[in-house]
Amino acid sequence: MWREEDDLQSMLRESVDRYAAAHATLACFRRSQKSGEGFDPGKWREMAALGWTGMFLSEAAGGTALGLDPALALAAAAGRHLIREPFVASAVIAATVLDGAQAPAARDLARALAAGEAIVVLVDQEEVGAIEPAAPLARIEPAGPRNVLNGRKLFVPAWTPDARLLVTARLDGAPAIVAVGADTAGIAAETHRMTDGTICAHLAFNGVELGRDQIILTGQEAADAVELAIARGRLALAAQLEGAAHRLLALTCDYLGQREQFGAPLAHFQAVRHALVARHLEIELAGASWRSAAAALRDGLSTETKIRISAAKARASDAALGMARSAVHFHGAFGFTEEADIGLYLNAVLRWASWLGNPDLLRQHALALAELEERATCR
Amino acid sequence: MQVTARVEPVELDRLSVEEFRARFRAWLERHYPPEWRRPIVLRLRGEQEKKWLRLLYDHGWRLPAWPREHGGLGLSLEKQLAYHEELARFGAARFLDSGGTMLGPILIRFGTPDQQERYLPGILRGETLWCQGYSEPNAGSDLANLKTTAVRDGDHYVVNGSKIWTTMAMDASHMFLLARTAQAPRKQEGISFFLMEMNSPGVTVRPIENLAGESEFGQVFLDEVRIPAENRVGGEGEGWTIAKALLGVERIFIGSPGLSRDAYAVFREVADRLELHGGGFEELNARLFCDLNDLVALYEMISSAAIAGTAESHDFSLMKLAASELFQRITEATLRIADEHAGVYGPVGLGRAPLELHKIAMLARAATIYSGTSEVQRDIIARALLGKAG
Predict the structure, then answer these.
(1) For the domain A122-218, what is the CATH code?
(2) Does the structural domain B247-386 have CATH classification 1.20.140.10?
(3) Residue B66, min C-alpha distance to chain A (Å)
(4) pTM confidence score
(5) Which of B250, B275, B282, B325 is catalytic?
(6) CA distance B310 to chain A (A)
(7) How far apart are CA B320 and CA B315, in angstroms?
(8) Mean pLDDT by 10 residues, chain A (379 residues)
C-alpha cells in the first residue's frame, strides 16, 4: 500500500467512519435526493462540533486551523460515505476566503462557520465552464449615500435560503468580495436540484444595498483569496472523488466475489478481472495525482501547483465516473435498480466531476499553463 | 583511462539526495560520450556496453544497488532511484546490463563464495556480458512450462533444449539459465539455475531481427552442452525460487516514466515542427500531458513507499503496466499527428535534425510484452483485488 496516512489523518478517517455509521449517510443521501430537501442544519452543527468546519479557520475565529492535509483526508472520507453536507463548498472554499480577510464582518462569519451556525459560500461563477476566476461582471456601485450590488451568478453551491454569501464583484475597477445574507432584499434565486442531493442556485442581484463594512476584501487580496479558495476546492473535490471511487471499487469487488454465474463467482472471469484492473489503475493515478498536487500546494500556489491541481481534478473525475459506470455494469440488472447503493455514488460523482471544471477543460487548462510557463522560461 | 576522479561510496553516503543527484549529473555532463545521447532509440551493446560499464566502474559509479563488500555502491534505494532518474533525464542511451541488475543480486544472495569470486568482478568491470536464458519457444508468459533439460553426468550437467527472445545473446560472453533437472508434479519444481559460457561446445545462436530492424535478440540452441556442476546456483530444484526472488523491489525500475517522458518530448517536437495547435490536437496533447503528469506522480508515490518498505509487489506491476501502455499511447499519438510522415521508413527530417519516428513506434511495441506482458501484470493486480481466479 503506497498511500500513507499520519496519526491525525487516520484519526479523522475513523471519526468520519463513526459519523457515517451513526447517521446512515447513504440513507440520508437517498432520502434527500427524492425529497430535494437540501442538507440538515442540525448535522452541520454536529460537524462543527467535531471540528470539521473550521479546519481552514484560525483558532482565534474558533477554528482548528488543521490545514490542508487533514482537510483532504476528511474530504476523501466524506466521498467514501457520500456525506453531502457542504464540506467543500463551505468549510474549504468559503473558509479559505474568510481566512484571508481581516474585516470584522469576515471574522464574524468565520466564527459562525466554525461553530456550524452558518453555511457560508463563495458566489463567484458567472459563466458555465469557467476555469480561471475571471474579472467579475457583477458590480458594486454607488447609489446615493450607499453602495449597491448588481449582477448575476451561476451554480452557487450548497444553497439554503439563509446562507451567507461571499460575492465577488468589481469595485472601482478592481476585484472585491462582499458578504451578504441570501435573504437580503434584491436577491432573486432560481434553484436547481443537483445529482448529489444538494441544491445550486442561479442568483440575480438587483440593487442589493451594502454597508461599507460588508466589503471584506478588495484588490489583489480579493483575487488571491478566490484563487486559493478554488485551488483548495478542486483539490478537495479530487480527494472526495477518489474516496467515492475507492468505495465503489470495494463494493464491486465484494459483489463479484459473491455473485455466481456459470458455476463460478464472477470474480473468477478474466474479462471481468482485467476490466476492473483498468478502473483500479485510474483510481491509483488519481490518488497519486492529487497527493502530489497537495504536496506542491504546501509550497505555495505556483503555476506548477495549479497545473498539478487541474490534472488531479481531471483524473479523479474520470476515474470516479468510470468506476461508477463500471460498478453499475458489473452489478448487472441489480446495478440498474434504485435500491442499489452504487447508483447513489454514480449520481454524486456526476455532480462532483462537473463542478469547478470538467475533466476536458481542466486538462486543457493544465496544458495551457505549462506552455505559458515554458515560454516564460525560454525567454 | 583516467582513474583519478573515482568517488568512494562512503563519500556518497555523506551527500544529501539532492547533492548526490547534482554530483552524478555533473559527472555525466563531463564524461558521457555525446554520441550516445540518443534516448529511446539507442541501446548500447557489445563493446559499447563494455566501454560504458567500464567508464562507470573507473569513476566509482558502477552498480548502485550492489552491497559494498561485493564492490557495489551500496546506495540507499532513494539514491538508487535518483541515479536512474538522472540517467534518464540526461538522455543517456539505454543499456541492459543483465549481469549487474539481474545475475549479480542472485549470486550475492544465492551463490557460493567461489561463484561470487569468479563472476562478480568481471561484471563490475564490464568485462563479461551476460544474457538471460529463461524464455523458450513454448514457455513465455508461462515460464514454468520450460522444457530445456539438464541431466547430471559425473561432474557435469548435460543440457539440451533451446532458449528464445534472448536479448543480447550475440554479444554476451555468458548466459544464466533455467533448466529442468527433474520431472515433478508441479511444473515450478524440478527447475535449476545454471551459469554457462556462451562459447561452450554445443551452443549455437541464431539472431532474430526485431520489428525495429535490429538483431538484439535471438534463439539459442543448446545441444549436449556440458556445464560443470559447480556452475549450478543453489540446490537442484531451487531454480524457480531463485529466479523469482529477484522480482522484488528492483521491478520498480521497469515502471519508470523515463521512456514516456522522452516519447512525449518527441511528440511535442513533431507538433512544433508541423506547427500544430488548437482543436483535436490540443485535446490529445492535453490528455497526454496530464497522463504523463499522473504517471510521474504515481511513480514518485510508489518509489517513496518502496523506500519506506511499504510498497507491495502488485504496486510494481501496476507501475509497469501504466508506464508501458502510456509509452505506447504517446508513440501512437505521435504517428497520428505526423500525417504522411508516419509512413516514412527511417528518420524523418521535418526541416531540422532527424527524428526516428518509425523506430520509436516500433520499439514501443515491445514494452507491453517484455518483463511480463500487460495481461500477466493485470492477472497479478487482479489477484490483489479479487483473490485467485478460481
Answers:
(1) 2.40.110.10
(2) yes
(3) 25
(4) 0.95
(5) B250
(6) 6
(7) 9
(8) 90 94 93 82 93 96 95 97 93 97 96 97 95 90 93 96 97 96 97 93 97 94 97 98 98 97 96 98 98 96 97 98 98 95 97 97 97 82
